[in-house]
Each structure stands twice: as structure tokens, then as C-alpha cells.
Specification:
The chain is of the alpha/beta class. The chain contains 17 helices and eleven strands. A five-stranded parallel β-sheet has the order 4-5-8-3-9, with helices on both faces. Strands 1-2 form a two-stranded antiparallel sheet. A hairpin with a 4-residue loop joins strand 1 and strand 2. Helix 2 packs across helix 3. The longest helix is centred in the first third of the chain and has 26 residues. The model has no long low-confidence stretch (mean pLDDT about 80).
Length: about 400
């Protein structure tokens, strides 16, 4: 075929009508057909990824998610409902095939949880990731600093997620990141800082791009120790961010706001309906701003929920009722040595009373149990005894004042 008679084997355009004509063995293809073919391949690849995600991701309805959470977490009914809906909407958005019928773009439902330490914020995130079969990275906001200062950059959050996904980029880009202690990066003053606030407002500014959804160059081995490493591009658009913090002292802000709104006789009557033992239930985004979170980061964490403080009834249930309850764990440990373990209700109530008295919370329950059962776990495997029953007098004997004092210091 003469050079001037060359044409595209796909669309039939002559060589002068094209910008580029690439020759094959017995055919030619022009630049326009290449672009069109590339678009078809990209669309097919995107659809294949969605189908692969559908097969790997175990997405359940909100009620099913809550039922699963109920087996591991006692109480916190409102938070479990809020989390179930937010997680369902987020992953439903991921599984939705691209549509050309409308231009409606569903935004992410990032979550912020406010609650005292030991109320189950981290457990909530762990349980949801277990249900959905997605990678989870738990990071502590207290170690984050602005770029250039001693500490970790905000990009290290995504390094942890990549590690949790075994460096599978596609899995990491649909994972969950739990940022703990987010209240510790609150702004140190009421006004924007004119000096460097390297572990506070500066970190919040750095988190904005991650939370909203952007492509970030992530060092796979961490930050500054490996400056020559190749970066991995991670798109955070489909990563669900859950932030948690104790926000110690925010109750005063809530009380002040409610009192400011209370004017006149009718308002004082309404105060009678306020539950002063759990002021966190009245929290609104404005309170987070007063505490020191910048408005931009509050806007990128649109789902706000709270964790109720743990009362005696809840702590008692935590000991025995969840699927992985503390007492069930000890029953299994003793059963491995062919020892039947039992504990009386009075002993359980005594453990709970001590946890409340010394403000050890849910985390302290395990420490108290260890202090009571350690001697038996040390001695009984070497004896012929097959039964171990814990009574209240036995617990009182093992749990001396000095032991509890040490436990309180640790927690």
C-alpha cells in the first residue's frame, strides 16, 4: 500500500486526516481510535473493580450491622444506629456503578465519636471492620505534627492503612481509618494561632485534604527515615475516616450553652428534663468548635455521635454478655487445663463496684480479674484439681487495697 493511501483499519480515515497513524503487522490504527479504545478499556476495568469489590466486601443492611455490633458491644444504642447507617451509606456509595443519567455525587459520611475513655470507641471501629472485611488502621493523633517537625506527618496515617491491607492499594483505598485522641490536636486558644501550633491547629489543617478526598503521595515505609523510597499514590476519596476523642471538659461548654439559651421561667422548667449525669448527649458541632476544632475539619466529619458513660448495669453486662466477654475468656482458658471455672454473682458485683469506685472503667475490669485469678492460674495447672469457684470473700482476699491502688495508677 502506498504511503499516501494508508488509512486506519478501524475507522477508515486516510493518513492526512489523522494526527498519528500507528502501523501494526497487517493493519493501522489512528490516534482517535486509540483514545476511544482506551476509554472503553478504562470503563471495563472500573466496572471489573466494582464487581471485585462487591464480591469481597460483605455489606449488610443497617439493622444487620447493628445486630452484629450488639453481640460485641453492650449499650450505646444510639451510637450503634448512627454508625450502622453511616457505614452502610458509605459502602453503598462505593458499590454503586457509575451512572450517566444524573450528575449527583454522594459525599462521604466521615464520623466523629465523643466519649469518655474506656466507653468502647475503638472497639466500635474494630467490630465494624471485622464485619465488612476491610482493612482498619488505628492511629493516635497525639504523635502527629506539622511537616518538618519531630513526630509523624499526617501521611503516616495512610502508611498504616497500606500496611493493614498488606500493601494492596485497591483494598487500602476502601478501608477504614480510626483516628484516636483527636481532641488532643485541638487549637490551644480561642483565636487562630499567629505562632506555630505544630501539634494542634497545624495538624488539623494537614488532615483536611485526607478527610475530604484527594490523591496523596504516601511513603510505604514511613516518613523521614527512608528519604529515597518511592511514593505510592493513594486516593482517599473512598476511605472512611472515624475520629474519636474524650474531649475532657467539653461538658462545661455544653452546660454553658444550654444555660445561655435558658432565659425566663419556661426555660428553667425545661432544665428539669436535662440529664446532668450525661451531658454529652446534648453535644452539637458548635461545642466542638468551642473546644478547639477548626470549622473546616468539623465540616469534613459530618456525622457526630456520642458514647454514654458506663454505669453499674452496663459494666456488669460487659463482664458476661458479649460474644467475647471477659468471663467467657477465662472459662475457656481454664477449660484448656480441664478446669471448670465458675464465679458467683456476688463476686461479679464486687468486681464492678471496685471498677466504679476507683474509676477504672471497662478497661479496668480485665485488670481486676487478672489480679483476682492470677494465683489460681499459676497454681492449678500443676495440681489435680478440676474445679475453681470464685466467691466474693475469695475476690476480697485477692483484691487488696494495695492491688487496686496499683491498678488505678496504671490506668
Amino acid at each position: 500500500m502506498a504511503k499516501e493511501n494508508l488509512e486506519c483499519s478501524f475507522c477508515g480515515r486516510k493518513k492526512p486526516e489523522t494526527n498519528l497513524l500507528i502501523a501494526g503487522l497487517d493493519a493501522h490504527i489512528c490516534d482517535r481510535c486509540i483514545e476511544q479504545a482506551h476509554g472503553i478499556v478504562a470503563e471495563e476495568s472500573k466496572q471489573t473493580k466494582i464487581n471485585d469489590l462487591s464480591s469481597e466486601l460483605v455489606l449488610k443492611k443497617p439493622q444487620e450491622i447493628k445486630e452484629f455490633l450488639d453481640t460485641f458491644i453492650i449499650g450505646q444504642e444510639r451510637t450503634k444506629k448512627v454508625m450502622s447507617v453511616a457505614v452502610y451509606n458509605h459502602y453503598k456509595r462505593l458499590l454503586q456503578p457509575p451512572s450517566k443519567k444524573d450528575d449527583i455525587e454522594i459525599q462521604k459520611s466521615n464520623i466523629i465519636m465523643v466519649g469518655q475513655t474506656g466507653t468502647g470507641k475503638t472497639l466500635m471501629a474494630k467490630t465494624i471492620s471485622k464485619l465488612l472485611n476491610v482493612p482498619l488502621a488505628i492511629v493516635d493523633a497525639t504523635v502527629l505534627t506539622e511537616a518538618g517537625y519531630v513526630g509523624e506527618d499526617v501521611e503516616s496515617i495512610l502508611t498504616r492503612l497500606l500496611q493493614a491491607a498488606d500493601y494492596n492499594l485497591e483494598k487500602a483505598e476502601r478501608g477504614i481509618v480510626f483516628i484516636d485522641e483527636i481532641d488532643k490536636i485541638a487549637r490551644k486558644g480561642d483565636n487562630p494561632s499567629i505562632t506555630r501550633d505544630v501539634s494542634g491547629e497545624g495538624v488539623q489543617q494537614g488532615l483536611l485534604k485526607l478527610l475530604e478526598g484527594t490523591t496523596v503521595n504516601v511513603p510505604p515505609k514511613g516518613g523521614r527515615k527512608h528519604p529515597d523510597q518511592k511514593f505510592i499514590e493513594v486516593n482517599t476519596e473512598n476511605i472512611l475516616f472515624i475520629a474519636g476523642g474524650a474531649f475532657d471538659g467539653i461538658e462545661r461548654t455544653i452546660t454553658k450553652r444550654l444555660n445561655m439559651q435558658a432565659v425566663g421561667y419556661s426555660a428553667s422548667k425545661a432544665d428539669n428534663f436535662l440529664d446532668t449525669s450525661n451531658m454529652l448527649q446534648y453535644i452539637i458541632p458548635r461545642d466542638l468548635k468551642e473546644f478547639g476544632l477548626i470549622p473546616e475539619i468539623i465540616g469534613r466529619l459530618p456525622v457526630l455521635t456520642h458514647m454514654n458513660p458506663l454505669d453499674k448495669k452496663t459494666l456488669r453486662a460487659i463482664l458476661t454478655e458479649p460474644k467475647n466477654a471477659i468471663i467467657k475468656q477465662y472459662e475457656k482458658l481454664f477449660a484448656m487445663d480441664d478446669i471448670t471455672f465458675t464465679i458467683t454473682d456476688q463476686a461479679l458485683d464486687y468486681i464492678v463496684d471496685k471498677a466504679i469506685e476507683y474509676k477504672l472503667g471497662a478497661r479496668g475490669l480485665r485488670s481486676l480479674c487478672e489480679a483476682i485469678f492470677t494465683d489460681a492460674m499459676f497454681e492449678m495447672p500443676s495440681t489435680e484439681e478440676s474445679k475453681f469457684k470464685v466467691t466474693k470473700p475469695y475476690a476480697e482476699e485477692k483484691l487488696s487495697y494495695e492491688t487496686v491502688k496499683k491498678l488505678k495508677a496504671v490506668s
